[in-house]
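U., I forgot to send this yesterday:
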Amino acid sequence: MKIRDLVLWAAVIAAFVVIFVPAIPSAQAQQQMSEQDKKMMEQMMKYGTPGKAHELLKKYVGQWDVDILTWRDPAMPPEKSKGTMTNTLIFDGRFVKCDFDGMMGDMKALGLEVIGFDLFKNVYTTFWIDSWSTTFLVTTGTLDMTGKILTETGTFPDAMTDGKTMQKIRNVTTFMDDGSYKFEMYMAMPDGKEMKGMELLCKKK
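Result:
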């Protein structure tokens, strides 16, 4: 073989090494990334798709007349007022959004609530904001064995201590056989006992 041919073959081999050999690990890495992407999508679907627990949210849907009871002193009769609630499913049933419009005692009140089921934590989570505070109230909890009683707990800043201490609350939502539902809020007192602070009875229009 002539020297010129040897030089040509050497050049071809060198070009193959430079161009194609570095691409082999890159192709393997691309295949690995594709497998990781597939796993990521599977996990996102697992934790992002509404399931059986989200069926409860449908019970909130509709327009409701609300009878409101509030207690400032457990020894005294509750104050009575009225309101309305408009509840709609959002994001393909992942959450229910509740718009409250009414009175809280003798004060005009607007409220916005979002309820969902967190598949990571396996708990129902409620987010609440309103027109009489600047606090974001978040409660979490579970449904009882009957599927009719949702109990959630949380805390909010105690105004009497300028927020230096937190007020513990327990919220109970009971779904009645007639299609209505009742919301009750209980507050923990300094002696450890609970006081019922609010009750909302929601009847579908």
